[in-house]
Write the structure tokens for this entry.
Amino acid sequence: MGGEHPRPRPRHRSRAQPVLPGVRRLPQSVADDMKGALSPEQVEVFSRVRTAVGTLFPNLSFLMQPFSLVPGEPGVRFVTMRLYHPVGPGRMEMYSWCLVPKDAPQEYKDEAYRAYTLAFGQAGTFEQDDFENWTKVTRSAASTMVRDLDFPYIMGMDSAPAEDFAGPGHVVVPYVNDTNFRNLWTRWGDYLVGEV
């Protein structure tokens, strides 16, 4: 294909903002509040995080990431929290919220909410794509063709715990793996057999 070449991107783009290294598009007041509320070790961990995902057993999940309205730009960081509520066999409701610091400037709140809505709101680009995938997976899982199919959750079995993680919790490197799924189903199994 001819035409223009994409402009080169800086190698360490995620460390460009001096407010908190690695934390893009947080207002100075929010960064200052974070520095005051977190230990220096926690600030260091957070400063290296671009995207964070997790689940609080059994049905509350969060996602923190930047989203840009302009390709190639750093975007605005927002947090979405989701609560999953079963409503019947093969049916579930999902409640989704955009979280921003209460004392953050209104301009940042508006920008974060807009990014959340365009990415992970009910009509968001990624939410619609994920919804389609999960709907088809659920439908397919009930078919006779997959009754004997195993879902092994083996990606990342060789992942090592992050030795330099200063906070509580279980963090592995690399973070894209099935560790969360294994932990979720292991905990669910503990409840089923009365080991909790």
Notes: Residues 30 and 144 are 52 Å apart (CA to CA). The chain has one domain: 14-140+164-192. The first helix runs from residue 28 to 37. The chain has a mean pLDDT of 80.
